[in-house]
Amino acid sequence: MVMQMIQVLVFTTMITIISLLFSLKETAASMAKPGCPEICGNVSIVYPFGIGKGCYLDKRFEITCNNSSLPRPVFHPDEENEAEVLHMSLEFMRIRDWTSPVCYANYTSEGRSSVQFVFNPLKPFSYSHTENKFIGIGCDIFVYIGDSNTTNSIVKNYISGCVSVCNGQGWSWLDTNYSCSGIGCCQTTFPEDLSIFEIRVGNMSTWADGGDWPSNQCSLILIAEKNFSEFHQFDVSFSNVNKTYFYPSVLNWAIGNKSCHEARKRGDYACGSNSRCVNSKKGNGYTCQCNSGYRGNPYLPDGCVDVDECMEPNNTLCKKGAFCINTNGSYYCNCPYGYLYRDDDNHEHECARNKGKLKAAIFVSSGIGIALVLIILLVIGFWLHQELKKRKKNKLKQKFFKKNGGLLLQQQISSTSSIGSVEKTELYTIEELEKATDNFNASRVLGKGGHGKVYKGVLLDGSIVAIKKSIIVDERQVVEFVNEVFILSQINHRHIVKLLGCCLESEVPLLVYEYVSNSTLSHHLHNQDHASTLSWEKRLRIADEIAGALAYLHSYASLAILHRDIKSSNILLDENFRAVVSDFGLSRPIANEKTHLTTLVQGTFGYLDPEYFRSGQFTDKSDVYAFGVVLAEILTCEKVISSSRLEESLAIHFRLAMKQDCLLEILDKVIVDEGQKVAIPAVANLAKRCLKLSGKKRPTMREIAAELDKLRTMERTLPQQTSLDNYTVSGRSYSYASTSAVTEEYVLQDQEFPKPDSMTA
């Protein structure tokens, strides 16, 4: 017995000494190149960066360290610029970035002006989309960022942006409020994988003729680290136009601009031993990572050193008397002399005495009884495990139900008289929807929006549905989700998307809609392959159906509803090109005695009512303005925001064209090729009236629906025109520039507008 104890003690001591040697080897590893400075000020230098000749991989990774009383490392991205390094690691480099106020010029009576910048970060450095955020500081401004063409610096696609208003509070607000939530300052995520990108900032103030100029003509744009909050230090008044402000920003970096395979083939491969190479996205270089079981700097020849798993805190790798022995990149478990290392019945490792055959036979004979007991215990244990698992799953579902607004939805139900319609909304299980979408497979995605994705699903009964799944759930999105369920459950209209049910027991809320199979109006108007399929007759009918749905929401629903996000991408089309209005996340019911809703400005660039943007008061005429933009899209097939136009906004572009009698010049070629239709100038005039800057001068959706319904009737009964210059109706001649005559003659005959058939719920 004493001999066995001595053997165990010696064995334990040897294992401890070996583990300490591996631990010392690991802690001695440096992140800088051997023989080179390892620190400047309080910043540790990480190779391939380095200070001094021969200490960095190439010139792009050179760091200079001044010799002042407070040394600071300086990074030189190119020959003209430099930036102070605040921290560096194997993945990111945190720098002290800078910006100056941007001021606008060339204001027009439309109240719009913007400034554009093209960023071309020096490879292999780029702004990190995970560690940075995109910030705009200023009064009544919009800022957005887009992927730019590498050859001519023209924006291909605007990816992200935000809006900042001041509501008359001015810059003094920033002195006491450090948040950045849309008043004086706005922020959003920085897009992923942008090598060359454009940032555009503009003033969104809109005023009638003779109004005052904007109160502020300057703003600031930042790409700052995500936890930056010192917004109070910035003053973007015109007097500080030459002032420079500093803030922290995070850069990604990679090696070269070739792939791992090309680097190996070329002979300048930078990854050391015990490491692997990972290609960067878009082919912009590569990075190195230590293999599993190793830790350190993979860019040094021997930078990746073995990790001693046996010395890790709270190590439970080897159990029941076994000793952990470290190896290069791994470990194994061993036992003292006289013991064997084996698996027990529960597949846990243990050290067991090496007993003779006689004892083994005794164990075998008694093992049958023990096995029976173990089987009974396993059955009981399995049953208890399943019960606990079921209880845990039910608790998790209850947690998700509360998180996803179940209590808020119940509160909405209890406070309204329309209880029956809400209670009829079907509640789906998460298992049912996972099976319907093949576990939310990427191949089932129908579309993506700012808050989530829409999947095509096939339910057990064979019916096809569209399932909307949120990406991230915050308090505002939960309110929008509950609001959409509550509103759509009370609506039954052939041109408004039908809500079939929802799921509240998943991690994020899910909505189940009827499936509308023919994509969106935006897709058919702006996709070159599909625009030709929309004849003028189809476009006029789609416009009439959208107007009928909105008129129903405003005037005929049991409780008036403001949509608040009318746009062509929210108009679905079925196989017969029937229009269906969707996406009611921002919609709000409004009492009959109220004229407007006062809310934080929300919506989509290009469709926002200028009055709503300026005052924060949303009315039914704000929906009319957005519908006017959709009418302009139907007539022109132009995108709402485009850098190729002198006027970025389609609304401004359309109003100016109508003012200058240039309707023919902006009409879509497909419409022009059909020959002139008598309803086209009337619809153009209707769009012009919808886009008036003053909401009081715009028609109601009820009036618009009646006009479009009469125009469709007139289009079918009157002879079609073939001249591209003028047309004759009832003995009177009209030019395409004069767009009000047809409407006045044939549409505005009745003071009372009857409820059209298309509005019937």
Automatic annotation (TrEMBL):
Domain named EGF-like: residues: 306-345
Pfam families the record matches: EGF_CA, GUB_WAK_bind, PK_Tyr_Ser-Thr
Regions that span the bilayer: 360-384
Keyword DNA-binding: no
Predominant location category: membrane
Catalytic function, reaction form: L-seryl-[protein] + ATP = O-phospho-L-seryl-[protein] + ADP + H(+); L-threonyl-[protein] + ATP = O-phospho-L-threonyl-[protein] + ADP + H(+)
Cellular component terms (Gene Ontology): plasma membrane
Secretion signal span: 1-29
Residues binding ATP, per UniProt: 469
Keywords: ATP-binding, Disulfide bond, EGF-like domain, Glycoprotein, Kinase, Membrane, Nucleotide-binding, Phosphoprotein, Repeat, Serine/threonine-protein kinase, Signal, Transferase, Transmembrane, Transmembrane helix
Protein location: Membrane
CDD domains per UniProt: EGF_CA (cd00054), STKc_IRAK (cd14066)
Gene Ontology biological-process entries: cell surface receptor signaling pathway
InterPro entries membership: EGF, EGF-like_Ca-bd_dom, EGF-type_Asp/Asn_hydroxyl_site, EGF_Ca-bd_CS, Kinase-like_dom_sf, NOTCH1_EGF-like, Prot_kinase_dom, Protein_kinase_ATP_BS
A single GO molecular function term of this UniProt record: polysaccharide binding
Domain Protein kinase: 440-711
Record membrane topology: Single-pass type I membrane protein
Function: Serine/threonine-protein kinase that may function as a signaling receptor of extracellular matrix component. Binding to pectin may have significance in the control of cell expansion, morphogenesis and development.
Name of this protein: Uncharacterized protein
Organism: Vitis rotundifolia
